[in-house]
């Protein structure tokens, strides 16, 4: 076990936290005992606590239909992770938390880089998932991916996470290709007071967070600040991630029950990103400003996203600046013409501007327009039919029509069946359309030679058509829950970077790469989920996912598979299990076990291509692995304070989740200690 060594700056930060914590702790002694008891009970309630939960109604979700509805009526497959589950898990980042969700592929490249996709085709720079934080998209239009470890949100702030698997373009447009992650944060009303959390552990890991919120008359506010840093597990004393997060929210409730909310925030720091097979060091800021106004059945949202990064590739080691400005407007209206119909419609406009002369040449701008509508129709009390569509216009790919049709039927009480059809698309990212980059690479003992990367302004969007069947039920007074889904996805027009020209040996003078639409694939699979509450203090869950990817022609998503072959770059089998126990003594125990089957990760082998231009694509076998995470916590009876020991990868199953040849690191056991208090 490695000892934690504190630098001067780290020591000052930790001492500052301890001083603040010690000053706030005595204040809770003089709080109202009744209020304290009520707050303690409220904070401990969750999916595994108390009889009131065993007999609760099905949870309400928003993201699947852009309106609140019971999860049983959702037109898509949805998993909800609650605030209590987040706390119990001990996860320090969203990517690791999402490992428990059936159907999700999570690969961690390094301590600052993770990639997530649903139902196959997860890889470095995965670009098929849309992530929303309180309705604001954090999809990076320049790269076409998500920086999961640089999202301007902290774990203690999250109220719930809705994971929607399957195409979502009918409501969310481009890039909601394989699913949507809808992160909903706690309101000032839920966070009243001050929350302080500190985590310290192996690999120079430090996470300090302070949240303060309050309500006064018609005003409400929330302020969040956090500092996070950690070292690489594989390369000793190498700082892998260091960032600061902060956000502020201010809300006002008008007398006519309308509400105005203004928020702003940022994540500033450094880390690394593996895109394709090139490792980039990144440093900079992700900033946003957002305004929401809700009045009766109307919702208006506008936000500004700024991505300002300096990236340095590991080949040429040249620093390049990237500035991406996004302005987004959306108006939505909900109508209920009768007690059988709920109709929503909306308009969206998105403005994109990129300044990065060393990466894409001259500045580029995109204007994207869209309109969407959806009708939820209930012809029978036990039958709901949802139909919707969206039309988007992109300056390069033109118009897109994205339909969705779903039927939810409950022939017997608590036995719910769902059938759905949907189509979605992903627009090319800026780098795929406008890239204009040359990198000098070494091929010792041969002389340096250039690698030229060029975008393609004639690309079509990637396409997916999905068919899905689902079933869910809750039995034994809601103690037992079961969900099952099967799906069939047809994916086409993958945007792939392939060699356009290679000057052959001896010696090579250049490699030219470009983007093309190439390949088609079929993905079939299913997911099975069980959860069971043994008592008011003990519960468990279990889920299993299966997916089979088949290439319908050569070149599907950077694979080296020929037509009819299985694509093995995504795991065929995944299983998750968990156990949670909370004792009257204040001690709680949480254990999560994750199994992922082996894969064959694909990568560009430029070294081999020097001698054989046809060998540009290669693969590396990644063994299956089992990761077990444990959290043991104690909640102090007279204070809303909890201390926890967190051990990830308990049995030290050292493993990689992507190809070492691409720069992916190995992961081992990690010990962490956390203290969280609310005052």
Written description of the protein model:
The chain is mostly beta strands and 679 residues long. The chain has 9 helices and 39 strands. The protein has a 22-stranded antiparallel β-barrel. It has a 5-stranded mixed sheet with strand order 3-8-9-6-7. The protein has a 4-stranded mixed sheet with strand order 23-24-28-27. β6 (129-133) and β7 form a beta hairpin. It starts with 7 loop residues before the first helix and ends with a strand.
The biggest beta sheet reads:
22 strands, antiparallel, barrel
How widely separated are the two ends?
34 Å
> What structural class do helix, strand and pairing data support?
mainly beta
DSSP helical segment count: 9
Are there runs of 5+ residues with pLDDT below 50, and where? 1-56
Estimated helix fraction: under 10%
Q: Mean pLDDT, nearest integer?
A: 85
Query: How many extended strands?
Result: 39
Computed Rg: 25 Å
β content, as a range?
over 45%
Task: Give the overall silhouette.
Answer: globular
Oligomer: single chain
